[in-house]
């Protein structure tokens, strides 16, 4: 264990902030880039703890201890202060995207579903959001019945009246609501012990020290953004520079400029973020960058593409990026965050596999010179204390090395289950290996294989496309689609099957690079569709039944950039129904 990590991990997160507030009170814990560029605000460890005590006292006075509290804030320091206030109150934080103009219907639908599940004591938000919410609170019985409190109402004088809630490691710290691709979000109940263990794992695997510095643009409401980008740096006692994901999406090069300006050592995101930067960087923009300080470039939350890593390396090696910094990793909300990754400073490990064996035999077999090869990128090695098994999902029997099956997990980072959903908890968290009865394990729903101690993640079980008895990974078809025409936006394509006239048929939704009027979009779609069909037939021996062209930035995705294929299927079916009426 590295000397910079706690020799004895903290008992709970309150211990963490209290320790740093005493040891380095005036050091900056977080910097938030208000405009994604130079305008910034900061907070020290001392300020963070004082604010946490004030907010906690206000929450305790409202009877929130031990109960869920909804946090509705835009990304920023106010949100982080509110989150720590919940922890100091002994309440259960429930971070959510706030309702916003232009996205009101979608965000309210999710908010109502989570309200029904979490049954919070109150809603903590900002004065601006509370004022905006007044317009619709009274018209919605679920919202009108809640107690609302604006953070600006909390007096700093309350800090002196804080009562330590006597937290234990097994106390639930927050509910990490899943993306809810099927329309039913579930709250993953994470304890202080889960969070402490996973923060310790991240520090060990990333080889972090007090001299590390992180730049994070990821959504701060769950897993990678909240735990990896906010809680872990504070756990270690090194600063993080944060920005809104909207500022990143508006201009992806802001991310790399922030790394350059802060001399960050750690940063990352899903595969699409690297793809965006590699494709959008101009020679003039490259002259502004210096990425030589970047030591850990983590890549997770969606399948890692070898071609993307190559393109990114080629684009940014001239400004100091070292490909050995790449750190592909795997994790999920139900396991707090990280499960596998690294080792650090190695770069991405790849395996050239026999494409036919993967497709027909569901095995990762090293390709011979004569066979058609496919490059798979490893998501690293399972981290210490995490047990990873590859299991045949239908039978519960362990798979041999190289065989593709469902990824099952056990270990101290695995969550307690889903909040107030015992049946779903038993189904996902109570799996046992057939015959051996070893367990319990978390069933991840992800497909993968272990080869020479490396975990290769190959997609979701529910996303598999089965046509004429053959299995097809949607990611493979999506890659073919993207490469069929340069007018398709990279990382913005979804492949799925529909049941049509008693047959499973392949359908694709994709975004165009440019926004176009409807007649022009349909005309362009006609020429692209013929290319798609030829490419899919050539590469996969499949017939592409139909495709639908979308405007940029409209393909259904989670907040962390994962494609929601179930929602894409619903979008397509609804569109087809409307066209028929």
List keywords for this structure.
alpha/beta; eight-stranded mixed beta sheet; globular; 18 helices; four-stranded parallel beta sheet; single chain; 581 residues
- Quaternary structure: single chain
Q: Helicity, in percent? A: 25-40%
Beta fraction: 15-25%
Largest sheet: 8 strands, mixed
Label the structural class: alpha/beta
Mean of residue pLDDT values? 91
- In spatial order, strands of the major sheet run 2-1-10-9-11-12-13-14
Tally of alpha and pi helices: 18
The outline comes out as globular
Which residue ranges are poorly predicted, with pLDDT under 50 across at least 5 consecutive positions?
none
Distance between the termini: 65 Å
Radius of gyration: 24 Å
How many E strands? Answer: 25
Structural account:
It is a single chain. 35% of the residues lie in helices and 24% in strands. The chain has 581 residues and is α/β, with parallel strands linked by helices. The strands form seven sheets. Strands 2-1-10-9-11-12-13-14 form an eight-stranded mixed β-sheet, with helices on both faces. The longest helix has 23 residues, at 518-540. The radius of gyration is 24 Å and the shape is globular. The N and C termini lie far apart (65 Å).
